[in-house]
Amino acid sequence: MAQVPTEQMAQVVEAIGGPLVYKKIPVAQPGPDEVLVQIKYSGVCHTDLHAMMGDWPIPTKMPLVGGHEGAGVVVARGALVPPDLALGDHVGVKWLNGSCLACTYCQAADEPLCSNNPTLSGYTVDGTFQQYCIAKAAHVARIPKECDLEAVAPILCAGITVYKGLKESGAKAGQSVVVAGAGGGLGSLACQYARAMGLRVIGVDTGADKQALVQSYGCDFVDFMTSKDLVADVKALTPGGLGAHAALLVAVEEKPFQQATQYVRSRGVVVCIGLPADAHFKAPVFDTVLRMIQIRGSYVGNRLDSAEAIEFFRLGLIKVPFKTVGLSELPTVYDLMRAGKITGRYVLDMSR
Q1: Which residues form the Enoyl reductase (ER) domain (predicted)?
Q2: Sign of torsion over alpha carbons 248, 254, 260, 263
Q3: Which tens digit of pLDDT belongs to each residue from 319-346?
């Protein structure tokens, strides 16, 4: 292995609201149960913008290095790291950086719900918008060496998150699912995972580019800007017009959350994944009870979900729509994100 430097380039948020500062910072050393990962590529998630702006009700570390979709190579390891995680292995640094592994939730493989202050990459601990990143060895995702690190990076949050949401929906092969926010980073992957799982997909989003992307996966599409009755248009695309069996809400605005219970069928499942700041979910109680609608939240996947999501990618069933730019260009990516002009995912190349 090449010698690890003492300094590195990183994008640092020094105060809530930004701006980002592109500068040199020290390279940290791993603790006994940690590894140091040389980050080759990192996806950019809308959560990273929320972390900088501080508009979620979870306190962020400041100053902060954001990012939680980092794909790279293990270059140093602590004394307590198991031997099956070796120098040179390809791994991913995810949103869940570490958990206690001992509480009731962790023991039940619900480690994202850890009750003992789990650490979150790019939020409560420094994340992947730096060239070298620390992560708990138990929680790094194992990436097969035949997988392209540049293309797999967005799987480490967006892919795992939507795959987990689809599992939570309980939808079975042949059934229908609506993906609200289908043309974005999470939505474009949700469409593909759903298709790979044998589901019929109706994507909801707006714009010709997003429509073309969603339809390229073999999905139906409803443009919420041009639709005169979105609920009716979605239901019309389902067998018998009864509505979808499930809905995955990965949108970054509140309105799609208010529509979902109306276009799922009786006993339909609405899965909330996106986290618009200060948003609320509202549904009519009478209709929800009489039609036995289920409303669920779905957080990031556990370690097994992560391995399964990466395996879909390894098998060639998931193609990440992404554009690569240099780490130095992260502020431009945030500007595009604010303007709602991103189709698919942006990936940062740590070498530039």
Answers
A1: 17-348
A2: negative
A3: 988 999 999 999 999 999 998 888 878 9
